[in-house]
Amino acid sequence: MKKTNILDVVSRKLSPFILLFGIYLVTFGHISPGGGFQGGVALASGLLLILLAQGPAVLVQYFPLGRIAKAEVAGYGLFLLAGLAGFLLGAGFLSPLFPPPGTIFILNIVIGAKVGAGITLICWYLFHEMEEQE
Amino acid sequence: MVEILLLVHLVLAILVLSIRSLFTAVILMAIFSLFSAVLFFVLHAPDVALTEAAVGAGVSTFLYIWIVKHTQKEPE
Question: Using the 8-state DSSP alphabet, how is residue A95 labeled?
Fold first, then answer.
């Protein structure tokens, strides 16, 4: 399928704004609607726009696959750590350790990294599998 | 407002099921998710609307387009 100039230019201009909106959703999740999951999915859809319209080489150039995988693992580990920290300090699992926005803010950022990296990796490996079969 | 949105949902669902071209059906499904997001927003659930817009119109459309592209026969 031939790629047109319109698709090329629009995807190149639109994807940074989608990524910025995803970061906004993650960081302002405790004030306005949004949060870790929604912001993470917005981040992932920005990366998938690059992958679908620009090709895998451009995505790998700006966001190396190893770093995306590390972000996912770090998200999982930090969430577990933040949960167990409250457990070890005598309060319950995931109990708030910091004054009000603190814990929710940290958990939102961790969940955003985890969800965004996870969905990007799922779609990446599907893409890769399909490309190899041809 | 809600009734109009539900009518749009009905029309879009019938179109998705009855249309011949698979690509058009996938794009109509994305529009369907977008209208669902508007419906959730009207019903005072902005969180659900954001999730629906991101997952329904973004990621699942990616997956469906990819699958349709790789399972359809090339026209000769």
Answer: -
Number of Cβ pairs < 8 A linking chain A and chain B: 43
Q: Show residues of chain A in contact with B65, CB under 8 Å.
A: 52
Per-residue DSSP letters for A35-55? -HHHHHHHHHHHHHHHHHHH-
In a domain, B76, yes or no: no
Domain extent, residue B36, equals 2-71
10-residue block means of pLDDT along chain A (134 residues)?
80 91 90 86 89 83 88 90 83 76 85 91 81 64
A96-120 per-residue burial string, b: 16 or more CB within 10 A, e: under 16: eeeeeeebbbebbbbbbbbbbbbbb
Nearest Cα neighbor of A45 from B76, B3, B61 is B61
Of residues B51, B63, B66, nearest to A38 (C-beta): B51
Residue B11 scores a pLDDT above 90: yes
Which residue from A33, A42, A127 is facing B54, i.e. has the nearest CB?
A42
Tokens representing residue A65 in the block:
């696959």
Rg of chain B taking only CA atoms, in angstroms: 14
Q: What is the largest CA-CA distance in chain A?
A: 61
The Cα of B52 is separated from the nearest Cα of chain A by a number of Å equal to 9
CB contact under 8 A, A126 and B63: yes
